[in-house]
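quick q for whoever's on today - can somebody do inverse folding on this one?? i tried earlier but teh output was garbage lol. tokens:
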């Protein structure tokens, strides 16, 4: 399915936006990658067209889990210096601002950013925090950072990231996320780490119910102290888990195009987002990896209304919900919610 083009000033662009689920590692600009390749000798195609095929999902690609994850194998080659990490963070915030996003929660994986050159994790975290703070100030928007750890990596690494994240709560690091291959890796080894993270003051969001079934959503809620679920689109496969999520008011960070491109759903019109809303679940709309998917949040809002037939008023309610369930501190959250409510005329 071809990606729809969006007019720069259509009604979806003009909406004030809140994004709760965007990965820094999936937000690199192609032009920036070419610059980094030239400066640091990264072996990639010199043309933007050929590079795009390696790091972005193409219309002719198979829409599968493996093809989607393959893009990140190339992306991991680019984190070659503190300046690079600073640049890609600044540009991710700038791109959000240009899409009329008022509050962005940007998650990043310190282990992935450190690996190419063996940077210390605490340095990586400092670089991302400083860059995000400076860019947020420049573009007059709010940015919260979420540190992400992967299921397939060691609990010892996750514990180190969680400990560092807790130290930086005062610097705008608002949460901890568990991501990675949920189909093949259980979360048991991480239960204690995420319990301690909540006790330390970090918020918790968990990738679940995307490539794994509804049981993973239940595990995230009952054993990982999840306040929000990344994706979670398979929750409807189990009535008990659906009821549990509804009862707890759990928020789902749904990423429509990403779910199609990674093979979770067979087509955009078949996406379960409208059924999740109809089941009384709290649903927000997000991009996941805007560069990899070749989208903006404007595109996702448009897809939600035009492809999935969600009424505009329901989309506006989901934007407000995203503001209300953000990981901002309470004073800043009240200000954001009031601003979004006024702009959306709700």
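ok took a stab at it. sequence:
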């Amino acid at each position: 399915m071809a990606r729809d083009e969006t007019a720069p000033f259509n009604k979806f662009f003009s909406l004030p936006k809140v994004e709760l689920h965007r990965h820094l590692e999936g937000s690199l600009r192609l032009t920036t990658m070419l610059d980094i390749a030239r400066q640091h000798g990264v072996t990639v195609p010199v043309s933007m067209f050929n590079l795009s095929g390696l790091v972005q999902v193409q219309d002719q690609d198979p829409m599968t889990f493996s093809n989607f994850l393959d893009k990140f194998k190339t992306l991991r080659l680019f984190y070659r210096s503190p300046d690079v990490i600073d640049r890609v963070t600044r540009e991710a915030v700038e791109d959000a601002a240009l899409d009329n996003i008022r509050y962005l929660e940007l998650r990043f994986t310190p282990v992935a950013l450190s690996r190419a050159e063996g940077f210390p994790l605490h340095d990586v975290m400092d670089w991302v925090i400083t860059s995000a703070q400076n860019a947020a100030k420049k573009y007059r928007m709010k940015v919260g950072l979420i540190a992400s750890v992967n299921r397939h990596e060691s609990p010892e690494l996750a514990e180190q990231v969680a400990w560092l994240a807790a130290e930086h709560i005062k610097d705008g690091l608002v949460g901890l996320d568990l991501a990675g291959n949920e189909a093949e890796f259980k979360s048991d080894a991480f239960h204690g780490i995420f319990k301690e993270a909540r006790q330390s003051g970090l918020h918790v969001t968990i990738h679940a119910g995307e490539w794994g079934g509804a049981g993973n959503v239940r595990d995230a809620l009952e054993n990982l102290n999840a306040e929000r679920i990344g994706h979670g689109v398979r929750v409807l496969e189990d009535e008990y888990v659906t009821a549990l999520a509804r009862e707890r008011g759990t928020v789902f960070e749904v990423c429509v195009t990403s779910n199609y491109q990674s093979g979770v759903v067979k087509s955009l019109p078949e996406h379960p987002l409208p059924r999740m809303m109809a089941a009384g679940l709290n649903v927000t709309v997000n991009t996941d990896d805007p560069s990899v998917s070749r989208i903006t949040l404007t595109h996702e809002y448009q897809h939600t209304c035009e492809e999935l037939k969600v009424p505009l008023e329901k989309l506006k309610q989901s934007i407000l919900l995203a503001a209300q369930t953000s990981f901002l501190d309470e004073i800043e959250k009240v200000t954001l919610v009031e601003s979004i409510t006024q702009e959306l005329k709700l």
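fwiw The chain has a mean pLDDT of 94. also The longest helix spans residues 121-138. so keep that in mind when u check it
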